[in-house]
Inverse folding.
């Protein structure tokens, strides 16, 4: 380590020598950075899971434009929308076709001891081109009365229950006296509001949710003509449909707006976002403490080096060297620990908590920045003082 | 060369403290110190020896008056210029401030590396050589914590001298040393003076060193009260 660093730096690896001189302090410094990293990772993981689970249902569908009630911020909140608007939209130039999407929540008592809250989607099974390629081939199975495709990752239900589900080996599900046969599987996973997802035909949906009407779906999905710009069609729709009751967005904008709403306006999002901030603040404080203490305890030596003619950039360099070493040595164990925590949390909650490379890189760069800035601030006292006053 | 002045001090005044507590420590000091000479500063405790030495050595900002070091004026000089003038000086202080995590050789290397990276093998050789000259040849890899007070002081002396400074400032450099090694250090500085023209300004009370000095300046209450030039 010593001679490699020395070759790399072209000078004595003072930062490393200084850090490694006191092993106890080095280990507690690394532990501090690791702790700060884990804290941020866990908060980011939960926030990421919230985001991931809010957009997961969107991935079931394949649409260019989403038309919703003006008060709807996510797939499942907000009021209904008149199916009338679907017909109106279809006559707007550039719109190819539309379909209505019905959404509701149901409690599924799978056995004496196992139950799950399902988010149920109802859609015309003949509109299979509005579902993802994975789901499209199953849609025709839903044409028959009271058929469903069920989430294989439904939280709270033994996954063995789903192992054999197929057209020939249907899984019987009871809802308020209506028996539904699950004949296929989809893969969404649980979120913060539901344990799993179920897809049924619009007709079956209306049988399950008796108070709902076919004329009042939750959303309208639209496909546009080939070669037409989505934005252009969205604008045309906005000028045709009444803005006071209807909201028109491209499908990707709708997803983004949902995410944005979840993280900035929903209590859960705000709390976890706040958690990330707390994690970062605590992390920065720990890192600053570690480096500031290190600089303070070497002030006399640094003053001597300054007296010998070392420029301030030299001290910044040493502190950056320390920052880089602490950031790397603290990050590696944090990555391992956080990944284990993710696995544990994921299996305990069924939430999509996963380590991503982007997140890992961001946390590392953040740590490096926090370490470097803290170090630079810590050396500022040295810059302004006369060496003679520090001996 | 021998007739030039390495250090010229003009009308130097210095104050410590702020507001009510502000107190003048140095009064109207004027000095010209000849290149290659060994000058000793003496005086009772609190008379301002260390203050004058640090002002002359560019370790303290000059408030009033001027110090010219090797032809360069220190008053109001930029940080960059201060850094580069400091690299031509050597300092030996009572507080040796060796870096605890560096070995004796590495501490001395810090005195060389301030001039640029250079070849590590060559620099290490030079560092070991000067430690050897100071009688520390068998202690080169020791950390400061494993050295005696006198040995640490000699490492600090090696660090100050290894890059061949043009002026050496020393504040009681021999205080931690036994008589013998104290004398040998001063002899070394004296030799550097005649062979390389190194100028030395030293604060000391050691009588035997006084005998070797070219000039003795006595301070009292921040003023020069006597200035004796010795002729051999
Ligand atoms: N950093 C400081 N802040 C305030 N006053 C100081 C400071 N340094 C020195 N002084 C004061 O300036 C005067 C000269 O101090 P200086 O250290 O130069 O004396 P000295 O001759 O080196 O003494 P000694 O022989 O004890 O080392 C003293 O009155 C001292 O109290
Ligand atoms: Mg003194």
């Amino acid at each position: 380590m010593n001679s490699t660093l020395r070759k790399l730096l072209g000078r004595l690896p003072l930062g490393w020598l200084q850090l490694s001189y006191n092993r106890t302090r080095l280990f507690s410094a690394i532990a501090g950075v690791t702790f700060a990293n884990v804290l941020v990772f866990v908060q980011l993981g939960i926030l990421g899971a919230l985001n991931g689970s809010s957009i997961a249902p969107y991935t079931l569908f394949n649409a260019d434009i989403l038309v919703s009630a003006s008060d709807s911020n996510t797939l499942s909140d907000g009021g209904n929308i008149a199916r009338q608007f679907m017909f109106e939209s279809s006559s707007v130039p550039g719109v190819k076709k539309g379909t209505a999407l019905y959404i509701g929540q149901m409690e599924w008592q799978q056995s004496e001891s196992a139950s799950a809250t399902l988010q149920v989607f109802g859609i015309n099974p003949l509109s299979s081109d509005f579902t993802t390629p994975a789901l499209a081939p199953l849609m025709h199975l839903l044409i028959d009365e009271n058929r469903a495709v069920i989430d294989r990752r439904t939280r709270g239900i033994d996954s063995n229950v789903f192992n054999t589900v197929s057209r020939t080996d249907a899984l019987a599900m009871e809802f308020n006296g209506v028996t539904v046969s699950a004949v296929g599987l989809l893969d969404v996973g649980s979120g913060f509001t539901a344990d799993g997802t179920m897809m049924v035909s619009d007709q079956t949906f209306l049988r399950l949710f008796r108070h709902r009407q076919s004329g009042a779906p939750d959303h309208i999905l639209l496909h546009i003509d080939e070669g037409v710009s989505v934005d252009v069609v969205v604008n045309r729709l906005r000028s045709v449909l009444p803005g006071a009751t209807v909201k028109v967005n491209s499908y990707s904008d709708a997803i983004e707006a949902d995410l944005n709403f979840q993280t900035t306006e929903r209590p859960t999002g705000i709390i976890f976002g706040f958690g990330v901030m707390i994690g970062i603040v605590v992390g920065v404080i720990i890192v600053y403490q570690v480096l500031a203490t290190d600089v303070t305890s070497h002030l006399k030596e640094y003053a001597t080096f300054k007296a010998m003619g070392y420029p301030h950039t030299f001290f910044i360099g040493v502190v950056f060297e320390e920052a880089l070493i602490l950031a790397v040595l603290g990050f590696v164990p944090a990555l391992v620990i956080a990944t284990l925590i993710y696995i544990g949390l994921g299996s305990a909650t069924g939430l999509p908590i996963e380590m991503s490379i982007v997140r890992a890189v961001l946390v590392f760069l953040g740590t490096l920045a926090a370490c470097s800035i803290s170090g630079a601030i810590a050396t500022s006292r040295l810059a302004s003082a006369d060496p003679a006053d520090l001996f | 060369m021998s007739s030039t002045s390495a250090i010229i001090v003009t009308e130097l005044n210095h104050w410590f403290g702020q507001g009510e507590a502000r107190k003048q420590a140095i009064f109207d000091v004027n000095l010209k110190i000849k290149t290659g000479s060994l000058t000793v500063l003496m005086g009772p405790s609190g008379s301002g020896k260390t203050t004058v030495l640090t002002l002359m050595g560019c370790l303290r900002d000059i408030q009033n008056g001027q110090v010219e070091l090797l032809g360069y004026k220190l008053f109001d000089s930029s940080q960059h210029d201060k850094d580069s003038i400091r690299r031509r000086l050597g300092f030996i202080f009572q507080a040796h401030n060796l870096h605890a995590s560096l070995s004796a050789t590495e501490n001395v290397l810090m005195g060389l590396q301030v001039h640029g990276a250079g070849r590590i093998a060559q620099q290490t050789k030079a560092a070991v050589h000067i430690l050897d000259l100071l009688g520390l040849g068998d202690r080169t890899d020791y950390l400061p914590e494993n050295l005696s007070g006198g040995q640490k002081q000699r490492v600090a002396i090696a660090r100050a001298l290894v890059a061949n400074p043009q002026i050496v400032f020393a504040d009681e450099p021999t205080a931690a040393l036994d008589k013998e090694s104290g004398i040998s250090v001063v002899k070394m500085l004296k030799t550097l003076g005649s062979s390389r023209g190194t100028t030395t300004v030293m604060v000391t009370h050691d009588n035997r060193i006084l005998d070797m000095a070219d000039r003795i300046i006595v301070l009292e209450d921040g003023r020069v009260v006597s200035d004796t030039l010795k002729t051999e």
Remarks:
- The longest strand of chain B covers residues 5-16.
